[in-house]
Amino acid sequence: MASDVIYVEPGQTAEACMALMTDKRVRHLPVLEKGCLVGMISIGDLTKCVIADREFDIEQLVRYVHG
Q1: I want to staple 12 with a disulfide (CB 3.0 to 4.6 A). Which of 8, 32, 47, 64 is the partner?
Q2: Which fold has domain 14-66?
């Protein structure tokens, strides 16, 4: 068990959270706000979020190209 808890704050981006999870080799991160636990995110949650963002970007680009 680690003595220093790895956590994120609500304002951090999904990409930043994924990078932290990859670097620290963890699958779940507590979300702390002012020292209080406000949530927990998993790598699955982040993956879904990033995929949805990419799909939205692709859809917007396709609409732009097709007019």
Answers
A1: 8
A2: CBS-domain (3.10.580)
